[in-house]
What does this fold into?
Amino acid sequence: MPSAIPPRPATRPWRLAQGCPVGPRFRFAFAGFLWQDGGVKPLPAPDIHKLRAAQGWLELGNPLEAKVEWQRIEPAYRSHPDVVEVQCHIYASEKHWEASLKLAELLMELVPERPGAWIAGSIALYRLQRTGDARDLLARVVDRFPENWVVSYNLACYCAQLGRFDESREWLQKAMALDEAGVKKVASEDPDLKPLWDKMGGIIWENFVDIPERADE
It folds into this structure.
Protein backbone atom coordinates (compact mmCIF):
# COMPACT_ATOMS: atom_id res chain seq x y z
CA MET A 1 0.00 0.00 0.00
CA PRO A 2 1.24 3.53 -0.61
CA SER A 3 3.15 5.24 2.13
CA ALA A 4 5.13 8.42 2.45
CA ILE A 5 8.20 6.27 2.91
CA PRO A 6 9.36 3.37 0.72
CA PRO A 7 10.13 0.17 2.69
CA ARG A 8 13.74 -0.26 3.81
CA PRO A 9 15.59 -2.96 5.73
CA ALA A 10 15.35 -2.58 9.49
CA THR A 11 18.33 -0.81 11.08
CA ARG A 12 19.51 -0.20 14.61
CA PRO A 13 16.86 1.76 16.57
CA TRP A 14 17.43 5.49 16.61
CA ARG A 15 16.70 7.51 19.73
CA LEU A 16 14.92 4.50 21.20
CA ALA A 17 17.28 3.85 24.10
CA GLN A 18 14.96 5.77 26.42
CA GLY A 19 11.86 5.01 24.37
CA CYS A 20 10.07 7.18 21.87
CA PRO A 21 10.01 10.72 23.35
CA VAL A 22 6.29 11.28 23.93
CA GLY A 23 6.21 12.08 27.63
CA PRO A 24 4.48 15.06 29.32
CA ARG A 25 7.35 17.47 28.60
CA PHE A 26 7.44 16.52 24.95
CA ARG A 27 3.66 16.90 24.64
CA PHE A 28 3.83 20.30 26.35
CA ALA A 29 6.56 21.46 23.99
CA PHE A 30 4.61 20.12 21.00
CA ALA A 31 1.50 22.04 22.06
CA GLY A 32 3.59 25.19 22.39
CA PHE A 33 3.98 25.27 18.61
CA LEU A 34 0.20 25.40 18.07
CA TRP A 35 -1.83 28.60 17.74
CA GLN A 36 -5.03 28.86 19.78
CA ASP A 37 -7.09 28.09 16.67
CA GLY A 38 -5.20 24.83 16.18
CA GLY A 39 -2.90 26.09 13.44
CA VAL A 40 0.81 25.35 13.53
CA LYS A 41 3.39 28.06 14.07
CA PRO A 42 5.95 28.20 11.24
CA LEU A 43 9.35 26.64 11.72
CA PRO A 44 12.04 29.34 11.43
CA ALA A 45 15.10 29.33 9.21
CA PRO A 46 17.52 27.65 8.99
CA ASP A 47 15.69 24.70 10.57
CA ILE A 48 12.90 24.80 7.99
CA HIS A 49 15.55 24.21 5.30
CA LYS A 50 16.99 21.27 7.22
CA LEU A 51 13.50 19.81 7.55
CA ARG A 52 12.82 20.21 3.83
CA ALA A 53 16.11 18.50 3.08
CA ALA A 54 15.07 15.58 5.29
CA GLN A 55 11.71 15.40 3.52
CA GLY A 56 13.47 15.41 0.18
CA TRP A 57 15.66 12.47 1.14
CA LEU A 58 12.61 10.56 2.31
CA GLU A 59 10.89 11.16 -1.01
CA LEU A 60 13.99 9.78 -2.71
CA GLY A 61 13.81 6.67 -0.55
CA ASN A 62 16.92 7.43 1.51
CA PRO A 63 15.99 7.48 5.22
CA LEU A 64 19.62 7.41 6.32
CA GLU A 65 20.33 10.81 4.77
CA ALA A 66 16.94 12.02 5.98
CA LYS A 67 17.97 11.10 9.50
CA VAL A 68 21.23 13.02 9.14
CA GLU A 69 19.35 16.16 8.09
CA TRP A 70 16.73 15.68 10.81
CA GLN A 71 19.43 15.47 13.46
CA ARG A 72 20.81 18.83 12.31
CA ILE A 73 17.59 20.51 13.44
CA GLU A 74 18.00 22.42 16.70
CA PRO A 75 16.77 20.34 19.68
CA ALA A 76 14.43 23.17 20.69
CA TYR A 77 12.43 22.60 17.50
CA ARG A 78 12.33 18.80 17.49
CA SER A 79 8.91 18.82 19.13
CA HIS A 80 7.50 21.00 16.34
CA PRO A 81 4.62 19.14 14.59
CA ASP A 82 6.30 19.26 11.18
CA VAL A 83 9.53 17.89 12.62
CA VAL A 84 7.68 15.19 14.56
CA GLU A 85 5.83 14.10 11.41
CA VAL A 86 9.09 13.60 9.54
CA GLN A 87 10.53 11.69 12.49
CA CYS A 88 7.44 9.48 12.44
CA HIS A 89 8.08 8.68 8.77
CA ILE A 90 11.76 7.99 9.43
CA TYR A 91 10.83 5.50 12.13
CA ALA A 92 8.44 3.85 9.69
CA SER A 93 11.07 3.65 6.97
CA GLU A 94 13.31 1.82 9.44
CA LYS A 95 10.45 -0.48 10.47
CA HIS A 96 10.36 0.78 14.03
CA TRP A 97 6.59 0.49 14.07
CA GLU A 98 5.94 1.00 17.78
CA ALA A 99 7.87 4.26 17.76
CA SER A 100 6.20 5.39 14.56
CA LEU A 101 2.79 4.63 16.06
CA LYS A 102 3.49 6.63 19.21
CA LEU A 103 4.36 9.73 17.21
CA ALA A 104 1.42 9.19 14.85
CA GLU A 105 -0.92 9.01 17.85
CA LEU A 106 0.41 12.34 19.12
CA LEU A 107 -0.09 13.90 15.70
CA MET A 108 -3.59 12.46 15.38
CA GLU A 109 -4.53 13.92 18.75
CA LEU A 110 -3.06 17.40 18.44
CA VAL A 111 -3.09 18.07 14.67
CA PRO A 112 -5.97 15.82 13.54
CA GLU A 113 -6.47 17.72 10.30
CA ARG A 114 -3.37 16.09 8.80
CA PRO A 115 -4.26 12.97 6.79
CA GLY A 116 -0.64 11.82 6.86
CA ALA A 117 -0.86 11.29 10.62
CA TRP A 118 -3.82 8.92 10.30
CA ILE A 119 -2.26 7.11 7.33
CA ALA A 120 1.02 6.65 9.22
CA GLY A 121 -0.82 5.43 12.30
CA SER A 122 -2.84 2.91 10.33
CA ILE A 123 0.24 1.58 8.53
CA ALA A 124 2.04 1.13 11.85
CA LEU A 125 -0.95 -0.77 13.24
CA TYR A 126 -1.06 -2.97 10.14
CA ARG A 127 2.65 -3.76 10.36
CA LEU A 128 2.14 -4.65 14.01
CA GLN A 129 -0.36 -7.31 12.91
CA ARG A 130 -3.33 -5.19 14.04
CA THR A 131 -5.09 -5.06 10.69
CA GLY A 132 -8.58 -4.71 12.13
CA ASP A 133 -7.47 -1.72 14.20
CA ALA A 134 -5.82 -0.18 11.14
CA ARG A 135 -9.04 -0.53 9.16
CA ASP A 136 -11.16 0.88 11.99
CA LEU A 137 -8.83 3.85 12.48
CA LEU A 138 -9.08 5.03 8.87
CA ALA A 139 -12.78 4.20 8.59
CA ARG A 140 -13.48 6.65 11.42
CA VAL A 141 -11.84 9.56 9.62
CA VAL A 142 -12.20 8.83 5.90
CA ASP A 143 -14.98 11.41 5.56
CA ARG A 144 -12.62 14.11 6.86
CA PHE A 145 -10.35 13.65 3.85
CA PRO A 146 -12.66 13.23 0.84
CA GLU A 147 -9.94 14.28 -1.64
CA ASN A 148 -7.21 11.97 -0.35
CA TRP A 149 -7.17 8.77 -2.41
CA VAL A 150 -4.53 7.10 -0.22
CA VAL A 151 -6.96 6.90 2.72
CA SER A 152 -9.53 5.02 0.62
CA TYR A 153 -6.86 2.92 -1.04
CA ASN A 154 -5.32 1.81 2.24
CA LEU A 155 -8.79 0.93 3.51
CA ALA A 156 -9.15 -1.29 0.44
CA CYS A 157 -5.89 -3.02 1.35
CA TYR A 158 -6.85 -3.60 4.97
CA CYS A 159 -10.26 -4.97 4.00
CA ALA A 160 -8.68 -7.28 1.43
CA GLN A 161 -6.38 -8.65 4.12
CA LEU A 162 -9.37 -9.14 6.42
CA GLY A 163 -11.34 -10.99 3.75
CA ARG A 164 -13.93 -8.20 3.49
CA PHE A 165 -13.89 -8.25 -0.29
CA ASP A 166 -17.06 -6.28 -1.01
CA GLU A 167 -15.84 -3.47 1.22
CA SER A 168 -12.36 -3.67 -0.28
CA ARG A 169 -13.80 -3.32 -3.77
CA GLU A 170 -15.87 -0.32 -2.75
CA TRP A 171 -12.93 1.49 -1.20
CA LEU A 172 -10.80 0.76 -4.25
CA GLN A 173 -13.48 2.19 -6.50
CA LYS A 174 -13.60 5.35 -4.38
CA ALA A 175 -9.84 5.68 -4.55
CA MET A 176 -9.91 5.27 -8.34
CA ALA A 177 -12.58 7.95 -8.62
CA LEU A 178 -10.11 10.35 -6.98
CA ASP A 179 -6.95 9.32 -8.85
CA GLU A 180 -7.34 6.45 -11.27
CA ALA A 181 -3.79 6.71 -12.61
CA GLY A 182 -2.29 6.81 -9.12
CA VAL A 183 -4.25 3.77 -7.99
CA LYS A 184 -3.41 1.71 -11.07
CA LYS A 185 0.27 2.55 -10.66
CA VAL A 186 0.49 0.95 -7.23
CA ALA A 187 -2.39 -1.52 -7.08
CA SER A 188 -1.39 -4.01 -9.75
CA GLU A 189 1.69 -5.21 -7.85
CA ASP A 190 0.58 -4.45 -4.30
CA PRO A 191 0.71 -7.70 -2.27
CA ASP A 192 -1.76 -6.24 0.22
CA LEU A 193 -4.46 -6.41 -2.47
CA LYS A 194 -3.60 -9.90 -3.65
CA PRO A 195 -6.50 -11.55 -1.76
CA LEU A 196 -8.93 -9.31 -3.64
CA TRP A 197 -7.34 -10.02 -7.02
CA ASP A 198 -7.37 -13.74 -6.29
CA LYS A 199 -11.06 -13.55 -5.39
CA MET A 200 -11.79 -11.69 -8.62
CA GLY A 201 -9.78 -14.12 -10.73
CA GLY A 202 -7.30 -11.43 -11.76
CA ILE A 203 -7.11 -7.70 -12.37
CA ILE A 204 -9.57 -6.50 -15.01
CA TRP A 205 -9.52 -2.72 -14.85
CA GLU A 206 -11.88 -2.14 -17.75
CA ASN A 207 -14.57 -4.21 -16.05
CA PHE A 208 -13.82 -3.03 -12.55
CA VAL A 209 -17.18 -1.36 -11.95
CA ASP A 210 -18.91 -4.57 -13.02
CA ILE A 211 -17.42 -6.72 -10.26
CA PRO A 212 -20.20 -8.94 -8.85
CA GLU A 213 -21.96 -7.40 -5.88
CA ARG A 214 -21.24 -10.39 -3.62
CA ALA A 215 -17.49 -10.82 -3.85
CA ASP A 216 -17.47 -12.29 -0.34
CA GLU A 217 -19.40 -15.37 -1.36
Summary: The chain is about 55% helix and 0% strand. The mean pLDDT is 85.
